[in-house]
Design brief:
The protein is an alpha+beta fold. The protein contains 9 helices and 14 strands. Strands 4-3-5-6-7 form a 5-stranded mixed sheet, covered by helices on one side. Strands 12-11-10-13-14 form a 5-stranded antiparallel sheet.
Length: 306
């Protein structure tokens, strides 16, 4: 297999067709109407740990938030009759999975366990549901979209609703929410989750109303940032990876190009993500040139909802 070694994506030799890649880039990042669901803003771990006294100021009082684990699942919206992805596409769950779900709307995540995202994607995105595989999936609910109540009261109502039908359905759960009073406990909790292959934490202000779009009263806290980009070329590896992929060149929605060389398994280096593929990567801040720092491959995005 031949790999690109030039960092200039306009001089890529093989196997990139630049025009095709740019078309794919445009299609991948095209706006999608999707559902009117609430979305979280990112909370910088460095910012909140820099000064505990400042963090616990009125601008950020940790005791005012309800906190839960951020599940590495697939966002799923129950509209009262069927499950939908965040883009509004139908999820083909078996009828017994949603049997006895309430006729009110629910917002949550389809989830198996920590580190099982790829398996989950294969199960959930299949239009012909694998009945046996779906037995391992759970619907972890975190909100009641149509309720006018502030979050703390919405969550109590959600718990009561789930508990009232828990004997009739084995796949529907309310995500546990906790209240803490100290930033140190928050960072320790985050460390425990991440060290056990979890994603991070979610913080929702107790007074937050359910609103469509991104809100600063719903926050996601991770030890890293993540984003997406399109694969536009390859660079050959050295040493043990000679003759294999050493790094992929990618392009972001803001037209930044850079390479990602870590995070890949040996098998992925032998058979790297194809040109035009959308990948997710993790990073820690930006360089002075605006390039993601310490970018490493996370996973292939098989669809906008994965």
């Amino acid at each position: 297999m031949t790999y690109t070694v030039s960092p200039d994506v306009n001089k890529v030799k093989t196997p990139l067709n630049p025009i095709a890649a740019l078309i794919l880039l445009s299609l991948s990042f095209s706006a999608q109407a999707g559902l009117e669901i609430m979305k979280a803003e990112s909370l910088d771990i460095q910012k909140i740990t820099a000064n505990n006294a400042e963090t616990n100021s009125p601008e950020f009082a940790i005791s005012e938030y309800l906190i839960s684990e951020k599940l590495d699942g697939i966002r799923a919206y129950w509209n009262g009759s069927e499950l939908l992805t965040r883009s509004g596409n139908k999820i083909y769950a078996p009828s017994w999975f949603t049997a006895n779900f309430p006729n009110t709307t629910l917002d949550g995540e389809l989830w198996i366990d920590r580190g099982k995202f790829q398996l989950l994607t294969q199960i959930v995105m299949d239009k012909k549901p694998d009945e046996a595989a779906w037995r391992s999936v759970k619907y972890m609910v975190f909100d009641l979209p149509q309720s006018p109540l502030p979050f703390e009261q919405r969550y109590l109502a959600l718990e009561q609703l789930i508990n009232s039908i828990s004997m009739q359905n084995d796949y529907l759960f309310a995500i546990e929410q906790k209240r803490i009073s100290d930033i140190t406990i928050l960072t320790q909790w985050l460390d425990i989750v991440v060290n056990n292959h979890g994603e991070g934490l979610m913080l929702q202000h107790s007074d937050n109303l359910y609103v469509a779009g991104r809100t600063h009263q719903l926050l996601k806290l991770k030890q890293h940032q993540d984003a997406e980009a399109i694969v536009i070329g390859y660079e050959e590896g050295n040493g043990k990876y000679q003759g294999q992929m050493g790094a992929v060149w990618v392009k972001t929605a803001s037209n930044e190009t850079f390479k990602i060389g870590s995070g890949f398994t040996d098998q992925q280096r032998k058979s790297p993500p194809a040109i035009g593929t959308t990948i997710q990567y993790r990073f820690n801040g930006y360089t002075n040139r605006g390039i993601p720092r310490f970018a490493r491959f996370s996973r292939v995005r098989v669809s906008p909802d994965s």
